[in-house]
Design goal:
This protein is mainly α. It has helices at about 40-55, 60-70, 80-130, and strands at about 5, 35. Helices cover about 65% and strands about 5% of the residues. It has a two-stranded antiparallel sheet with strand order 1-2. The longest helix is centred in the last third of the chain and has 55 residues, at about 80-130. The model is unreliable at about 20-30 (pLDDT under 50).
Length: about 140
């Protein structure tokens, strides 16, 4: 799971801020913490947007390609089947495009929500630390 790393256990004293005794993964005292990065979420959102954009002209390209095929198959029974297949692909392309567009926004919303949650938790522990003298 990229973007999230969990090291064995978490201590409340580690959350008060960097530089506590033994705090942090690099602090030497075995202080373990949960870290979040919005990078993977935003990268996935960018990928979904790219797919949305790339699928944009596909419907028109499919219609153009179909026109050339239709001219060569006038009077064949397969023409009706070909039309049904084309319509099916058009629905699928539009559904995939819509899903990609929707997914990009949802992935960005997750990154924002996790950032807000992280800051809220950090602030709440900072208040506790200031009342207890950082212990």
């Amino acid at each position: 799971m990229s973007g999230v790393s969990v090291v064995s256990r978490q201590r409340l004293s580690d959350l008060g801020g960097a530089g506590g005794a033994g705090g942090g993964a690099g602090g030497g005292g075995g202080g373990d913490e949960l870290k979040h990065s919005d990078g993977p979420w935003l990268q996935a959102a960018g990928g979904a947007e790219s797919l949305h954009t790339l699928l944009g002209p596909v419907r028109t390209e499919l219609e153009t390609a179909h026109e050339g095929v239709v001219m060569g198959t006038v009077g064949l029974e397969a023409l009706a089947e070909l039309g049904a297949v084309r319509e099916s692909w058009q629905r699928r392309i539009e559904a995939a495009r819509g899903e990609c567009g929707s997914l990009a926004g949802k992935l960005r919303a997750v990154a924002r929500a996790q950032g807000v949650t992280n800051e809220t938790v950090r602030s709440s522990f900072a208040r506790v630390a200031s009342r207890t003298g950082g212990q």
